[in-house]
Amino acid sequence: MDEEKFMTLAPTSDDIWFYRCAVKNGCRIVAPPSGKHRLNLIAGTQEVGLFKINDAPGVGCFTQHLHNLTKGDAQLQEIFLAEHEINQHVLLTLATEAIRKKLFSCRIDIRNLGNQDNTVEIDESAFIEVFAPEWLRSEQGQGKMVVCTGVSVRLVVTAKGTGKMNLILRAPKYMIGDRNPACYCVDFTSIKIDADKSYFTSASHNSPHKIELDVVDGQRIELCLSLVPHWYPYTELRRLIASIFPRDAFMHDNADCLTRRILREIVSARASLPYEMEGNDKDTEAPSLLVLEELSALKQEVKIIQQENLHLRQQCSDLLLAVNTLISKLNAGA
Questions:
Q1: Which of 2, 35, 41, 89 has CA 20 to 30 A from 165's CA?
Q2: Same domain assignment for residues 96 and 114
Q3: Which of 229, 262, 291 marks a domain boundary?
Q4: Phi and psi at residue 274, in whole multiples of 5°?
Q5: Low pLDDT (below 50) residues in the chain
Q6: Do 77 and 138 fall within a single domain?
Q7: The pTM is what?
Q8: How far is 17 from 32, CA to CA, in rounded Å?
Q9: Does the residue 269 lie in any domain?
């Protein structure tokens, strides 16, 4: 293996490097269907990993490293061009999965307030990640931050120490580049604590839903959540999708296509909600998608016409220059 080349072109993307090696040796790579590649992870092994770097908001290492490995490689480019439609589908699928992971998720900040030794233990599953950030530590104990992916979440939280347990349910915060957080929202269709409560609420990062419970040492709390992706107007959803990977050229070029894909999934996920939970006009959702697709096609036609007009304008300019030059010669001859 060319270690220096690997560390220059794709230092944190060994999977793409092996993919490149396989393709150059004539192997066909098939991406598994969406949702069929989830792994049974061992608890406590996901605190560190290359995905923490490659999937970090605003970085977009995957697409950049893939570009690095194909740039200037005529053989690889020829293979990719021959399979352009397949590769485009794979990239769009991967991009959709990355967007879905962010928009279809929630975050729970859990604190057991009491003395400095107070904390909580959380039974981990494959669809949650648990962190113990320093900013959740105080003289009243150490809190935990849980990031959940999926439409159904079950947490079992054990109190370590007697105190007041705070559960703060919110949308995750993802930064737009290095500047401002994107304003995501999440809609909880059901929140149950020990099968006692069930209600609908919407939460953003800055406007979370808060629950307080008095607990004793060793008490176990079962928290069950059902959630659906929040409904966004098309332009706002497009802006959020563009903000996930602000420097990623592929995302930028395919923003409309990705927005329509995600919008379909949001409409599908919210289709079974009772009317009072909808927050939008169900009768206008499906037609609006058709209108948006027609609008996108019209925009493409306008872009083509503009390019043709620029070409015609340049031709007219060249012709006018030639005419003026001929007139000048005729006047000089006279």
A1: 41
A2: no
A3: 229
A4: -60, 150
A5: 33-36, 276, 279-287
A6: no
A7: 0.58
A8: 19
A9: no
Regarding whether 95 and 71 lie in a shared domain, the answer is yes
What pLDDT does 284 receive? 39
Is 223 found in the same domain as 109? yes
Close Cβ partners of 256 (under 8 Å, ≥ 6 residues apart):
238, 296, 299
pLDDT in the model for residue 217: 94
Please list the residues that pair with 167 across neighbouring strands: 110, 211
Cα–Cα distances (Å) from 269 to 98, 200, 278, in that order, read 17, 15, 11
Q: Are residues 213 and 183 in the same domain?
A: yes
Query: Do 113 and 222 lie in a common domain?
Result: yes
Residue 223 within any structural domain of the chain:
yes
Domain of residue 322 covers 281-334
**The pLDDT of residue 80:** 66
Q: 126 and 78, same structural domain?
A: no
Residues 109 and 222 in one domain: yes
Domain membership flag for residue 262: no
Summarised one tens digit per residue, pLDDT across range 239-275 is 888 777 766 677 777 888 888 888 888 888 887 676 5
Contact between residue 180 and residue 146 where contact means Cβ atoms under 8 Å apart? no
Residue 199 belongs to some domain of the structure:
yes
Last residue of a domain, one of 74, 102, 130: 102
- pLDDT value at residue 157: 92
